[in-house]
Amino acid sequence: MTRRALPTLAAAVAVLAAAGCTASSADGAASPSTEQLTVFAAASLTDVLDAIDARFEAEHPGVTVVAAFAGSSDLASQIREGAPADVFLSADEAQMDTIADTLDGDPVLFATNTLTIAVPEGNPADVTGLADLADPSVVSVVCAPQVPCGAAAERLAALDGVTLAPASEEQNVTDVLGKVAAGQADAGLVYVTDVARASGIEAVPIDGADRVANRYPAAALADAADPDLAAAYVAFLAGDEARGILADAGFAAP
């Protein structure tokens, strides 16, 4: 079963240290540990990656995938600071570019995603489109500009001539979704896949959102513990089986 590590350098180090130990059976005999693959992944991949990782593990007996989820910019910063990751999955190419010197090979695009407006079920503020998020009386939440979903929101708003007036800017799309789900915001800009995985939320489509579709790259890192395994994971993401799982979750092909 896929396990999730906390997306912090200290937690990642602790998980890696624990995974390096051998387990003991009831009679005290040591049993070999599994090989661990640590994947740093954009928050918008939180649910779909469980299914993908389960299939990868099934095809690679003895391998356990440990996924750490956070905003792509936070994860890129952790990688630059030396966090022991094997693979990075970013929600846009810009964040992957910031760690280009840490990669082992070229990034591979494996999915795309588009923005939508998430509102509480019933849409109590009667939000009808992006222009409504320029009204300060509508409590809206967006991702911070340095986060892929925030960068996409800025580009989309500029194309439509809309000046957004968010009540807060969050560090990842999951936090935006959480505030809407909790009734702390009337609306939030998230990905279409986020609405699909949430309860108590509905979507208000944005005309022309595909003009700023986010492209998701994956890359193995030069310091990966097992370069061949990291490369195999990236290749698996770009394969038909993973693409099918991504499509079922609402992601489009690159």
Main features:
single chain, 254 residues, alpha/beta, D-Maltodextrin-Binding Protein, domain 2, five-stranded mixed beta sheet, 9 helices, 24% strand, disordered N terminus
Topology overview:
Elements: E1 3-5, H1 9-19, E2 23-24, E3 30-31, E4 35-42, H2 48-59, E5 63-70, H3 72-80, E6 87-89, H4 93-97, E7 108-113, E8 115-120, E9 140-143, H5 148-160, E10 168-170, H6 173-181, E11 187-191, H7 192-196, E12 201-204, E13 214-220, H8 227-237, H9 240-248
Parallel strand pairs: 1-5, 4-5, 4-6, 9-10, 9-11
Antiparallel strand pairs: 2-3, 6-13, 7-13, 8-11, 8-12
Helix pairs in contact: 2-9
Structure description:
With 254 residues, the protein is an alpha/beta fold. It has nine helices and 13 strands. The strands form three sheets. A six-stranded mixed β-sheet has the order 1-5-4-6-13-7, with helices on both faces. The protein has a five-stranded mixed β-sheet with strand order 10-9-11-8-12. The chain has a two-stranded antiparallel ribbon with strand order 2-3. A hairpin with a 5-residue loop joins strand 2 (23-24) and strand 3 (30-31). Helix 2 (48-59) runs antiparallel to helix 9. The two termini are 28 Å apart. Residues 1-32 have low confidence and may be disordered.
